[in-house]
């Protein structure tokens, strides 16, 4: 039997995945990849050719105050320590000294960061010149109310950022499982908004009926009829950022492209680039998809594995099988993520808890459990089985064990897709 073997990342190493060629539908990845250019050149080119606005030197006024909104350490993989020094040089060149620049940590509902993590974000050179002030969504004294969106969301935004003359958003444009797209407006909503603002916005990912699950419009790559996305755009328009810099990552884990300019127009441009680099049309759905979360640090915790599950499920038939490779050396994830797996017996009860007080880890872990109700979900991981005993997720230590479970009762003639970079590539069914 002729086999097709693909090496997929797992933890710090790789696993060889072999499938009979006659059963292989294909490898879901880009056949043509972005040409390799020095990351610094990519960022400079974006800043020199802004979309929908002038360059920073034409926008900023000498001596004005500038808030630079930066993603937290969970987004370190998009290499802010590369692009932030270039951005600061451009700001300085517009006549704004270091003393007038404020770095605001776009935390959303994530935890506060350590000084060591701030240094990793800024890089050694900037860390010697600047501090990051992490946004606190519950610090009412440092929030400014801007109004209410058409969806009924009260918009309160970080006062330190709003008090500056100009606000610049930074981050990475990617697919996002309920905003449609990451980056852009997410730096404001949820990044630097108040707790109640974020709760109201994020709860719209769920249907109006408890037990109804996720709205079909709130999904990867979709903005049409997506209330989470549209609400965040309205909130960001109220905050009125002056400029945006978003990077797009390549297959090698480095910055492949970037977009800069008007916060909405430049992000729209970036979304098109993400589609070009990471969207993969497929002609049909498979019986089985084997996907890697992407190796360490992307598979550091189980709750991160939701990213590969979101994407891979779009390549498999309803009731089909998903095998996800994700080491999870640090366990399930944050405490609120652990609770979703350990404290509830049913997916509906988990959904009710997500609705009560929304957090991203809780939502992601509920979604993983919901996916395990729809698909035969098997995870190759270091996670101990008892931790997921109350779910329909099946955990094994090795790929051969996973394949035995997949083939058991269904036979080995399963039409199969392979996804080496499951957390990044989005399969798009042509029909």
Task: Summarize the helices and strands and which ones pair or pack.
Elements: E1 3-10, E2 13-20, E3 24-27, H1 39-48, H2 56-59, E4 66-71, H3 80-93, E5 101-106, H4 115-127, E6 132-134, E7 143-148, E8 154-158, H5 159-163, E9 166-172, E10 175-176, E11 180-181, H6 195-203, H7 227-239, E12 243-249, E13 255-261, H8 265-278, E14 279-282, E15 286-292, H9 306-312, E16 316-325, H10 335-342, H11 347-356, H12 360-374, E17 376-380, E18 394-396, H13 399-407, E19 416-419, E20 426-429
Helix pairs in contact: 1-3, 3-4, 10-12, 11-12
Question: Describe it for me?
Answer:
By secondary structure, the protein is α/β, with parallel strands linked by helices. It folds into 2 domains: 3-31 and 283-429, LarA, C-terminal domain (2-enoyl-CoA Hydratase, Chain A, domain 1); 39-276, LarA, N-terminal domain (Rossmann fold, 3-Layer(aba) Sandwich). Helices cover 30% and strands 25% of the residues. It is built from 13 helices and 20 strands. It has helices at 39-48, 56-59, 80-93, 115-127, 159-163, 195-203, 227-239, 265-278, 306-312, 335-342, 347-356, 360-374, 399-407, and strands at 3-10, 13-20, 24-27, 66-71, 101-106, 132-134, 143-148, 154-158, 166-172, 175-176, 180-181, 243-249, 255-261, 279-282, 286-292, 316-325, 376-380, 394-396, 416-419, 426-429. A 6-stranded parallel beta sheet has the order 3-19-15-16-17-18, sandwiched between helices. The protein is globular, with a radius of gyration of 22 Å. It starts with a strand and ends with a strand. The model has no long low-confidence stretch (mean pLDDT 94).
